[in-house]
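Sample pair:
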Amino acid sequence: MAWTSTTSSPRTGRAPLRRRERVTSRSIEVAAPGKVNLILRVLDRRPDGYHNLWSVMHTFELADTVVVEFNGRSGIRLTCEGADLPTDSANLAYRAAERVLARVRRRKGLRLHVRKRLPVAAGLGGGSSNAAATIQALAALLDTGWSRTEMAQLGQEVGSDVPFFFYRPTALVEGRGERVTPLQLEAERWLLLVNPGIAISTAWAYERLAAVRAGQVGRMPGRLPRLAVDHGGEGPQLVKWHDMLPLIENDFAPVMEREYPVLCEIRELLLMRGAQTAMLAGSGATVFGVFGDERLARIAAEGLDRRSGWQVWVTRTQWNPAPAYLG
């Protein structure tokens, strides 16, 4: 079982310094955090072939890093560290860079470097977060003056989950992913993420879900009952963890657990080890457990059966909004 922590030094146990975005006139380094879907309802199929969603997404501190640098060469050069990923337009970060340069009508040589810490095809939004970070970085380097809304609209052209990352850490996401309503999730929690080494294609997951439903339309959960607190029209609505926990669900979970029983086993292990709740992340194959503090999450992590190929992370949910330079 691989072990990764984002919160303390293995030698001292002290929390590390918070990572800041590093910026020069020609390069920028941006953290690209992962996300979990606290609620994920898959609704009807749209005329464009995508599904309407109703989802509450929330980011955590475990993150990839995207480095963007202008150079004297022509075109876009992408390198990846920590995972074997495509380095052309099949990669969302590359595609995001193409869209930005086309929008500003510039042909500068560009180097992208992605340092992966998030697992691939794991339901944690790593590719979408990389794309959003690339747009953020280029907007800052090129001094575009784009608003958060403008960057999110550009991100929608790249991938359905990309717009959310401009409104992190918490938001209600609707439609294909283009309608994003920021929320404020009160306080913080600790997540124990467990991935059994399975890669699940999002497209395949949707196919399996459709086959199981056999044409039935998913129900819409409606407005979040008893969660919103009126802030007088200023700032995002407040959501309390103790209200959110009973509502955590994922339409993919029962389908993916039938396909891969190990996912059900992991979820049950997390609950047995004291998780307040446990659920599949996105379309899989990572399962997350929610804990009230770091100590409990680490005890649960150490107690898991160490199976070959399993990866485990303890990470904290994000509380602060996205960086100020997003506008």
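Helices lie at 92-104, 126-141, 148-156, 202-213, 241-244, 253-259, 261-272, 294-303.
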